[in-house]
């Protein structure tokens, strides 16, 4: 039997400034230094290499895990 993957609400919150996903206990965003977080996020986008065309295109200059949508707004446009 295939196991179902949890689709959202894993123990992460999203930075409202840059969309980075951080553990719920984090106080400061490791990507942009903001302390403005929300648990209202959807989707996951992983930046593995900042040299990739897509990372440049989307202006992600740090590796990490980002939410696609934060508080109803798309981080990725
Ligand atoms: Zn941030």
UniProtKB/TrEMBL annotation:
Signal peptide: none
GO cellular component terms attached to this protein's record: DNA-directed RNA polymerase complex
Record-linked Pfam families: Spt4 (PF06093)
Residues annotated to bind Zn(2+): 15, 18, 29, 32
GO molecular-function term, one example from the UniProt record: zinc ion binding
Any single GO BP term: regulation of DNA-templated transcription
Domain Spt4/RpoE2 zinc finger: 12-71
Keywords: DNA-directed RNA polymerase, Metal-binding, Transcription, Transcription regulation, Zinc
Record's function text: Stimulates transcription elongation.
Subunit: Heterodimer composed of Spt4 and Spt5.
HAMAP family on file: Spt4_arch
Annotated family: Belongs to the archaeal Spt4 family.
NCBIfam families according to UniProt: RNAP_arch_Epp
Name of the protein: Transcription elongation factor Spt4
Protein source organism: Caldisphaera lagunensis (strain DSM 15908 / JCM 11604 / ANMR 0165 / IC-154)
Gene: spt4
């Amino acid at each position: 039997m295939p196991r179902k993957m949890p689709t959202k609400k894993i123990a992460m919150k999203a930075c409202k400034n840059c969309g980075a996903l951080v553990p719920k206990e984090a106080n400061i965003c490791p990507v942009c230094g903001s302390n403005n977080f929300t648990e209202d996020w959807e989707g996951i986008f992983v930046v593995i290499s900042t040299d990739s065309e897509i990372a440049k295109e989307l202006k992600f200059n740090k590796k990490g895990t980002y939410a696609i949508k934060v508080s109803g707004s798309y981080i990725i446009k």
